[in-house]
């Protein structure tokens, strides 16, 4: 029902001219899209948190409209232009991917290339060139949907387990994840791992931005000062060496930040940091160490038949959806 109302509002806003008016009013702001994984529908449905996944079809539809109607650049580049006061006729948008999964290389990179778009990939530096999964995938796989169709657990169980894990102190969480890891796990597929250094380098060589998503994906607000400095500083150094150019962007794991974390990001040499607080970045009020992003959930941006909706994507990016529907 909610999605029907949303879709109807989308087509009304597009037809009535309200959407165009809202887009004009938002010109001069910086909009940032936050994607995570890109996987075919069958794999999306089996992932413990399907909202973190868009299908290649959805990403292709989004990229088509982004290339048609927006000025698109990696966040570091877009931010620099925005700070210089450059304004184009088209709304300024940055596309970002969190975590740095290999599925991004397999599915997202060719779609971006086909549309002439460049994006930012925030990589969990400590998992590059390893067979280790991020801790939240180990928890999610242990409690979420199993590969078999008659699985007794589903996304709600995974969500509860992940919330529990996030509330644990870092050492307790590490111990719990280690215990879960030692249980016989289903074989980890290549797409579920973080990219190799060769893949990261090739994205950077193509003009994409490589950013840091920390070493181990902790909740940075829970880290002691020395761990905070390592998570930020060592990841920046490692990724800069891999990419062959200076990494200047950071993305907070889980979007968690506070004033201590933001100060540590600046001290570690970053030029900016991306958060997950929703909204447009307004030139007068934006904090470059807490850049707002729109979390892209494909279900929320689909029409009544479940297909990607141009109007709903434009409404999201202009801030009109948030105005009409609130956070979700
Ligand atoms: Zn993440």
Topology:
Elements: H1 2-16, H2 18-25, E1 30-35, E2 37-38, H3 41-46, E3 53-54, H4 56-69, E4 71-72, H5 75-83, E5 92-99, H6 102-114, E6 120-123, H7 135-143, H8 155-167, H9 170-181, H10 197-205, E7 209-212, H11 225-243, E8 249-251, H12 259-267, E9 272-274, E10 294-295, H13 310-318, H14 320-325
Helix pairs in contact: 4-6, 7-8, 7-9, 11-12
What is the assigned CATH homologous superfamily?
A: Glycoside hydrolase/deacetylase
Bound molecules: zinc ion
Could you say which overall geometry the principal axes of the C-alpha atoms support?
A: globular
Average of the residue pLDDT scores:
92
CATH classification class: Alpha Beta
* Number of strand segments: 10
Q: What integer value in Å does the Rg equal?
A: 19 Å
Share of residues in strands:
5-15%
Low-confidence region ranges: none
- How many structurally independent domains? 1
Give the helix proportion (percent range). 40-55%
Annotated CATH architecture: Alpha-Beta Barrel
What is the CATH topology classification name? TIM Barrel
- Strand-pairing-aware structural class: alpha/beta
| Span of the ends, CA to CA | 14 Å
* Total of DSSP H or I helical runs spanning 4+ residues: 14
Q: What is the chain-wise order of helices and strands?
A: HHEEHEHEHEHEHHHHEHEHEEHH
Oligomer: single chain
């Amino acid at each position: 029902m909610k999605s029907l109302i949303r879709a109807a509002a989308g087509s009304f806003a597009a037809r009535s001219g309200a959407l165009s008016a809202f887009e004009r009013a938002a010109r001069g702001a910086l909009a940032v899209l936050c994607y995570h994984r890109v996987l075919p529908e069958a794999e999306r449905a089996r992932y413990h948190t399907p909202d973190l996944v868009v299908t290649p079809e959805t990403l292709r539809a989004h990229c088509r409209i982004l290339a048609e109607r927006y000025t698109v650049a990696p966040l570091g580049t877009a931010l620099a232009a925005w700070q210089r006061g450059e304004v184009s006729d088209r709304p300024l948008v940055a596309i970002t991917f969190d975590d740095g999964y290999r599925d991004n290389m397999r599915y997202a990179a060719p779609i971006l290339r086909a549309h002439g778009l460049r994006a930012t990939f925030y990589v969990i530096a400590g998992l590059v060139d390893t067979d280790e999964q991020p801790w939240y995938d180990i928890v999610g796989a242990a409690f979420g949907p199993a590969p078999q169709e008659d699985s007794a657990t589903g996304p709600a169980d995974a969500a509860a387990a992940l919330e529990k894990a996030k509330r644990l102190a870092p050492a307790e969480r590490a111990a719990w994840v280690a215990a879960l890891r030692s249980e016989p796990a289903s074989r980890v597929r290549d797409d579920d791992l973080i990219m190799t250094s060769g893949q990261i380098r090739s994205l950077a060589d193509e003009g994409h931005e490589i950013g840091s998503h920390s070493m181990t994906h902790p909740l940075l607000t829970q880290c002691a000062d020395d761990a905070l400095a390592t998570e930020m500083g060592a990841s920046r150094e490692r990724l800069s060496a891999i990419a062959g150019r200076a990494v200047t962007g950071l993305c907070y794991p889980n979007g968690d930040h506070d004033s201590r974390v933001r100060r540590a990001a600046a001290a570690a040499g970053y030029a900016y940091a991306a958060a997950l607080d929703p909204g447009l970045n307004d030139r007068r009020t934006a904090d470059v160490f807490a850049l707002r992003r729109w979390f892209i959930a494909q279900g929320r941006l689909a029409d009544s038949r479940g297909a990607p909706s141009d109007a709903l994507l434009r409404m999201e990016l202009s801030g009109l959806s948030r105005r009409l529907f609130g956070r979700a």
